[in-house]
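Now read the record:
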Amino acid sequence: MLWAVLGTGVAFAQNFTTFTVLRGMLGAVEMGGFLANYCLVCEWFDTRQRAWAGNAIYLVWAVGVMSLPGIAYFVRDWRHLELIISVPLLLFIFSFWLLPESPHWLLTHNKAEEAEELLRRAATVSRLKLPPFKLKLPSSEYEEKDEKTSAWKQNMIGVIFTPYLRVYAVILMLVWGIDSMVYYGLSLGTHTLAGNQYLNFFISGAVEFPAYLTCMYCLNSQRFGRTKPTSLLHVIAGVSLLFITVIPQDGRKDFSWLVITLTMIGKYGISASFAAIYLITLEVYPTVVRNAGVGSSSVVARVGAAIAPLTIYFQEVSHVVQPILFGCLALAAAVLIILVPETASRPLPETLEGYTKWLRKKSPNTGNCEASKQLENEQEKTALQAGAY
């Protein structure tokens, strides 16, 4: 609702100050809503299907990116364009009643019965039959002796005092910032490429389709895991962008087609890796701080996104500055993401107290929380029955 209201307000802004304030608020609301929605969707799926579910959201994002230049081509007034993309968001008011709560969130807040009821309701809607089950809460992990202690442990302050997790948090924030800067720098800089700016922006959105499909396949593979494919995608982005720097620009021969091709390959790699880092971040943080952890990473990403348009002006200094900057940053992110623990085929961590134990588990099929493992087993049974059905 706030997204639609603020977007509509931007369209009617009469001065730059009002426009800037409303746009800033709109950006905060938009990312907050998107991240909460992403976490909710992924927490409803078991480990084998989470990559597909998370990236399905990005396929719709790609449709939006591809549609925007087409709409902008026919609607040249920015106020009218803002209304066209904002007013339909009023329909999201119905999501308040249609979207169920996350079973993982309910478990961590001692609401096992509600989580069980949601799973049974999901099975009923899917016309499936679940065997009798009972979600049990290990008192050693969920019993809180001090309410004040419990409160601060459920935000980023608790992350700071959690061994290993605080290091992973810093790494993930850096990768988010890099991916955001490169992604938006390439997206917003399509007008600097040769050819039609509307067509270039459309192609920039079109390459995201194969990027997200690649991300779906790679991250869902039990053989490759999550971090290695993500690192490789960063390498693809970085190397392709660095290759731009060796293309002759003396005007003797037109190599603009090659620059556009390498730029789009870079956009492909960074789009896929950016989508992957969302899922990895979600799986690294325990449920009690998951929204806060993903949100904190997104804050750093917004800083990268804010810097991205400024890098476009580097092209006035030299055409190789931006490709070198983005290429080196992408390669740095490829190294950093390898330092994050592998999360494929593992139940989601639930609490900060059990995080070290979760990391020490050698088997990828075991986790620190029996309730989480039991919940994902029930989700997996439902998914398998749905496939058989």
About this structure: The radius of gyration is 22 Å. The first helix runs from residue 2 to 11. The chain has 20 helices and no strands.
